[in-house]
Amino acid sequence: MHRRNFLIKTALTAAGFSSLPLLAHSNTVSTPPDELMLIGPKEGYSPQIGTLVSMLNYNRSTIIGITKGLSVEQLDYRHDAKANTIGSLIMHLGATEVFYQANTFEGRDDFNDAEKKLWDDAMNLGDAGRKNIKGHELKYYIDRITEVREKTLRELKKKDDKWLMEIDKKWSNEKRSINTYWKWFHVCEHESNHRGQIAWLKSRLPGAKASSD
């Protein structure tokens, strides 16, 4: 019992939550808070796609939770000359998802001109991202990635498990095969990876409480 509670508390703390009820205030992906930690099929989607959506929803709720209340100054904070800001990392999540939308829904391997204008700096990060992605309130970033996610969910409702399992012959070679499921799994793991970076940067903000990591 103690270990179970410890593991749940650790997971919630890492995601920016101190207790389960806070999930209801942090989730903007229309998943009831009591279902947010249930991974599996969801109504309106084919079984495997629904399972994928449940993971996408949980990951997104943790990004919203861990960034809640951050000021413009905190979102723009650079830990050192090579570091990205929390704001630019949030935009990077949106840019990556837009790329996989283009690739899996439309068969493109690059942004179109409109997408490049909004997402290119965020996709590449580096000097351009550090220079150009700043000065926005948290709502700006959350609104951008929410718009992207809403499109993803709309499009996934039109697809089935056969589509999800299809192998991309252009991306695959004699050493490895890559299917559509892997691409969207990568969106999930990519978001988890950068959540860790965001958590680290948050713990290093000026005035932040001492961290054990």
Which helices and strands, and how do they pair?
Layout: H1 2-14, H2 22-26, H3 47-67, H4 72-75, H5 86-106, H6 113-124, H7 126-132, H8 138-156, H9 161-165, H10 180-203
Helix pairs in contact: 3-8, 3-10, 5-6, 5-8, 5-10, 6-7
How would you describe this structure to a colleague?
The protein is mostly helical and 213 residues long. It is 62% helix and 0% strand. The chain is built from 10 helices and no strands. The chain has helices at residues 2-14, 22-26, 47-67, 72-75, 86-106, 113-124, 126-132, 138-156, 161-165, 180-203.
Rg is: 18 Å
Helix-strand string: HHHHHHHHHH
Give the DSSP E fraction (strand runs of 2 or more residues).
under 5%
Task: Give a quick account of the main beta sheet: strands, pairing sense, barrel closure.
Answer: none
* DSSP helical segment count: 10
Task: Give the total of beta strands.
Answer: 0
Distance between the termini: 25 Å
Shape: globular
Low-confidence stretches: 18-28
| Helicity, as a percent range | 55-70%
Summarize the structure.
The protein is built from ten helices and no strands. It is an all-alpha fold and 213 residues long.
Task: Pick out its properties.
mainly alpha; single chain; 213 residues
